[in-house]
Write a structure and sequence with these properties.
Residues 2-59 form the HTH lysR-type domain. By secondary structure, the chain is of the alpha/beta class. The chain has 3 domains: 4-82, Winged helix-like DNA-binding domain superfamily/Winged helix DNA-binding domain (Arc Repressor Mutant, subunit A, Orthogonal Bundle); 89-158 and 269-295, 3-Layer(aba) Sandwich (D-Maltodextrin-Binding Protein, domain 2); 162-264, Periplasmic binding protein-like II (D-Maltodextrin-Binding Protein, domain 2). Helix content is 45%, strand content 22%. The chain has helices at residues 4-16, 19-26, 30-44, 60-83, 99-115, 128-137, 179-185, 193-204, 228-232, 242-246, 279-295, and strands at residues 49-52, 55-58, 91-97, 119-125, 142-145, 154-169, 187-189, 217-220, 238-241, 254-256, 264-272. Helix 1 (4-16) crosses helix 2 (19-26) and helix 1 (4-16) packs across helix 3.
Length: 296
């Protein structure tokens, strides 16, 4: 039989694609990861990877074993779910969404945890494509997406329409905002910034807006909790969903511009077919629906 520990190490290594980061994820040293790999190769009698400098490629045997590792993880998750009581306050629920929505949602999840000592809630901020793939694989129980997924294994319900907001320093809230004044201030961009700019600024500054690549970028950051800090400091403007703005600790230092043409994203609460009936998952679905209703 395959050694379960070595197989888990190898599966993690294939998922992450990097020895050092895999070691960090597993709480091991890099030599420890290499040792598990060599022991597993000796057990199966085949090389499992081909190394090229710091990168590697799984061999055909490695690819086959990686699939076995993923399947075994899913079997263990399925077994754990069967063995758990169908209790809304017991078990694990894994949620994936955008960083902006995660900032808003997490405090509400913490309130839920206070009432349920045997419930574990895991929140992951990730791009939409990653959330969809994780839902399909079973790595996530719930996802909040900005579009209805078209996949036969997934169910989805629209829970709210979220406004996309132009955010400026609070000292500008009484000023007339045009594209020139925004460009003078400078754009605080982020991974979704240019897409958001085209969606919102293109609708409101039709005559002057030539595309996000013509905006003057002042700074860029990929950590959702940091995006509004330079705006609060008066160093630029940005564009974010309202959930990310409302969750910002220095909300009083930034202002949402009241634009004539609003733009919204439809948010879809998504889960694998049938899983929404599990008591613990259904209770979190109800919590999210209740909290987003309170936003209206």
């Amino acid at each position: 039989m395959l050694n379960a520990t070595w197989l888990n190490t190898f599966t993690t290594l294939c998922e992450i694609g990097h020895f050092t980061r895999s070691a960090d994820a597993l709480g091991m040293t890099q030599p420890g990861v290499s040792q598990h790999l060599r022991k597993l190769e000796a057990q199966v009698g085949k090389p499992l990877i081909v190394q090229d400098g710091k990168s590697f490629t799984p061999t055909p045997a490695g690819e086959a074993l990686f699939k076995v590792g993923l399947a075994r993880r899913q079997q263990e998750r399925d077994l754990k779910e069967v063995m758990q009581r169908d209790d809304p306050d017991v078990g694990e629920v894994r949620i994936g969404c955008s960083g902006s929505f995660a900032m808003w949602l997490y405090p509400h999840l913490l309130e839920r945890l206070r009432l349920a000592p045997d419930l574990a809630l895991h929140l992951t901020a990730a791009p939409q494509g990653n959330v969809i793939r994780s839902l399909i694989r079973g790595d996530l129980d719930l996802g909040i997406l900005t579009g209805q997924p078209q996949h036969p294994q997934l169910e989805a319900k629209m829970i709210m329409r979220e406004e996309l907001c132009l955010v400026v320093p609070s000292f500008m809230q009484s000023q007339e905002i045009d594209l020139a004044s925004l460009n003078h201030l400078g754009f605080v961009t982020h991974p979704d910034g240019h897409e958001y700019a085209d969606e919102l600024l293109g609708r409101n500054f039709v005559k002057d807006y030539q595309g996000s690549d013509h905006l003057k970028t002042r700074t860029s950051v990929n950590q959702i909790g940091q995006i509004l800090i330079p705006v609060a400091e008066g160093l630029g403007f940005t564009i974010l969903p309202r959930s990310g703005v409302d969750a910002f600790a220095r909300r009083g230092d930034v202002s949402i511009v009241d634009l004539p043409f609003k733009h919204h994203h439809d948010l879809w609460l998504t889960f694998r077919r049938g899983r929404g009936k599990f008591a613990r998952i259904a209770s979190v679905i109800a919590l999210i629906e209740e909290e987003v209703c309170a936003l209206d």
